[in-house]
Amino acid sequence: MAIYLRRCQGPWLFHILLFYILLNKSRAINPDGEALLNFRNAIVSSDGILPLWRPEDPDPCNWRGVTCDQKTKRVIYVSLKNHKLSGPISPDIGKIEHLKILALYNNNFYGTIPSELGNCTELQGIYLQGNYLSGLIPGELGNLSELQYLDISSNSLSGSIPSSIGKLNKLITFNVSNNFLVGPIPSDGVLINFTESSFAGNRGLCGRQINMNCKDESGGPSTNSQSPQSAQNQGGKKKYSGRLFISASATIGALLLVALMCFWGCFLYKKFGKSESDGIAMDVSGGASIVMFHGDLPYSSKDIIKKLENLNEEHIIGCGGFGKVYKLAMDDGNVFALKRILRMNEGFDRFFERELEILGSIKHRYLVNLRGYCNSTTSKLLIYDFLAGGSLDEALHERSEQLDWDARLNIIMGAAKGLAYLHHDCSPRIIHRDIKSSNILLDANLEARVSDFGLAKLLEDEESHITTTVAGTFGYLAPEYMQSGRATEKTDVYSFGVLVLEVLSGKRPTDASFIEKGLNIVGWLNFLGTENRQRDIVDPNCEGVQIESLDALLSIATQCVSSSPEDRPTMHRVVQLLESEVMTPCPSDFYDSSGDNDTC
Ligand SMILES: Nc1ncnc2c1ncn2[C@@H]1O[C@H](COP(=O)(O)OP(=O)(O)OP(=O)(O)O)[C@@H](O)[C@H]1O
Ligand SMILES: *[C@@H]1O[C@H](CO)[C@@H](O)[C@H](O)[C@H]1NC(C)=O
Ligand SMILES: *[C@@H]1O[C@H](CO)[C@@H](O)[C@H](O)[C@H]1NC(C)=O
Ligand SMILES: *[C@@H]1O[C@H](CO)[C@@H](O)[C@H](O)[C@H]1NC(C)=O
Ligand SMILES: *[C@@H]1O[C@H](CO)[C@@H](O)[C@H](O)[C@H]1NC(C)=O
Ligand SMILES: [Mg+2]
């Protein structure tokens, strides 16, 4: 449990933001298909159904879960229940003009119900029950005059029921039970005829339907209580102090939800026992083979498989965009990290294996060693060296003890050398594509190693045959990469520059304090530059900052994140600069008799 909590404070935002952007270039799919692809791209994980939605199809009519009108080829039903879909519901769903039924129930959707659904005026049924949706019920749903079925029960919705819902004259089923709704149930309109079972499990609702008087002089107060404001205002008045408590508990509910979302990847499946948690034991039970590189694993396949069979959720040490990571301890005391990647596609096995072979052949002091993998019908289990220091992301953002200046410089140096090796000394050259702090791992001595090189490429190809997709994590992506989808060494250099800024500032590239100002970390650096106070970016909790090396590092980082790729140095050059400008003595240190001079 401690592990989940530790992860929880972690980069969940990145997991939400981790997405593949499909480019609109030369795609001939119809507008409904386009909207559905955008819907798909907002989803961060699924049971594997969505990769089967092929962008190169002319229309989405044969996609799983999608039904079209035979004649017009326009989408009329979208039915994706029980598919472990996790992520927000894209507002683009509102562009499917002729949608009649939207059934997304029993998934892990979070975020709000998009008000754009109000644009789908032909909707007859909305089934969103059994998700983690939060926020208000959009008043726009009241525009859906054809709506007969509306089930949004068992979510985390807050605020009050919009009065516009009362206008839905055709409503047959209505269910908002088990949410955090407050306020009076609209009494003028269809809702008057629904019974308690439609409203149960919301401790803040009142109205005739649930035999709960609304304590208000005017009787049926503010039936137009659509806005959060009105719910809050009511709570603010003295006589509604009871409700204040309830809206506070709704807030706590929302906070809990956020906490819950943090470990959706690892925890929800475990908690609710969905079948994926059969996990590794299942993977290897139906026959599996172990591939080892260079005798890197001094065990028999049988020994390894036996160990794998015993791995379960307790051994999870982290989870990322590709899947979960387990700790694999062998009997001789050696420990490995096992990354589980669910198999998505039949045809790519041979390609995948060839690429893994290449990745396995790359050995370097500053790279995480891939020792082998296990091949099963359901997944690939990649066996890496285990790094006891965890990820740089954790070290910077989740631990209470702070990295000091020398440790930070050393980590930047190691990451630069690892990346320079991939770019300049490997054959074929390797573009990492996903440089970020969670992919820089630390050993017990806080030496950095770059991990997950080549994986982004591999999985991108696995996911979709042809389209150019952008792999990588929001906040670290070079502008031209987001536009063209073409990764180069220089897009990695940009991400490395962002990483340096993250290490210097102790803040994630998309930290709320930047976003509030409409910036990211690079925008912030540029802003500070205009006022000639770049040094202010440095983490106030970092001890031992040396001004000379800070200035040199800022200058390197600034070059790395410059918007035109030609202005960025190569990683080779970055390593040279780091060695000559940052790690070498600064004149003032010679006159400083602190005994630290051996670093000079
Ligand atoms: N070899 C390893 N040794 C120790 N811990 C590891 C190892 N590999 C991964 N981890 C842990 O597991 C976590 C998840 O790793 P993973 O690579 O799956 O996700 P990520 O790096 O956050 O995102 P991405 O999927 O984009 O790489 C890491 O943050 C780290 O804490
Ligand atoms: C919904 O309709 C409004 C008004 O017609 C329009 O401005 C908006 O762009 C539409 N949204 C979507 C997602 O289609
Ligand atoms: C949809 O509903 C919103 C809010 O309830 C309203 O402001 C808007 O005018 C409605 N749009 C249409 C097209 O009815
Ligand atoms: C509620 O039910 C009563 C009795 O069945 C009916 O007369 C009335 O029209 C209904 N009200 C609404 C708003 O549907
Ligand atoms: C509403 O949903 C709950 C489950 O969330 C269910 O128990 C209840 O029977 C439903 N009520 C109606 C009227 O469908
Ligand atoms: Mg990683």
SSE arrangement:
Blueprint: H1 2-8, H2 12-17, E1 21-22, H3 31-41, E2 66-68, E3 75-79, E4 86-88, E5 101-103, E6 108-111, E7 125-127, E8 132-135, E9 149-151, E10 156-159, E11 173-175, E12 180-184, E13 204-206, H4 228-236, H5 241-262, H6 264-272, H7 279-285, E14 288-292, H8 301-309, E15 316-319, E16 324-329, E17 335-342, H9 349-361, E18 370-376, E19 379-385, H10 392-397, H11 405-425, E20 440-442, E21 448-450, H12 455-463, E22 469-470, H13 479-484, H14 489-505, H15 512-515, H16 521-530, H17 547-560, H18 571-582, H19 587-590
Parallel strand pairs: 3-5, 4-6, 5-7, 6-8, 7-9, 8-10, 9-11, 10-12, 12-13
Antiparallel strand pairs: 1-22, 2-3, 14-18, 15-16, 16-17, 17-19, 18-19, 20-21
Describe this structure in words.
The chain crosses the membrane at residues 244-269. Its EC number is 2.7.11.1. Keywords: ATP-binding, Glycoprotein, Kinase, Leucine-rich repeat, Membrane, Nucleotide-binding, Repeat, Serine/threonine-protein kinase, Signal, Transferase, Transmembrane, Transmembrane helix. This is non-specific serine/threonine protein kinase. It is globular, with a radius of gyration of 27 Å. The strands form 5 sheets. A 6-stranded mixed sheet has the order 2-3-5-7-9-11, with no helix packed on it. Helices cover 33% and strands 15% of the residues. A hairpin with a 6-residue loop joins strand 2 and strand 3 (75-79). The protein is α/β, with parallel strands linked by helices. It starts with a helix and ends in a 10-residue tail after the last helix. Bound molecules: adenosine-5'-triphosphate (ATP), 2-acetamido-2-deoxy-beta-D-glucopyranose (NAG) (4 copies) and magnesium ion. The site of one 2-acetamido-2-deoxy-beta-D-glucopyranose has 9 residues, from strand 11.
